[in-house]
Amino acid sequence: QLVETGGGSVNAGGSLTLSCAASGSGYISGTACLAWFRVIPGKERTGVAAIAPATGTTFYSDSVKGRFTISQDNAKTTLFLQMNDLKPEDTAIYYCAANWGTYCGLSRYAYDTWGQGTQVTVS
Question: What gap in Å lies between CA 54 and CA 72, rounded to an integer?
Answer without folding.
Answer: 11
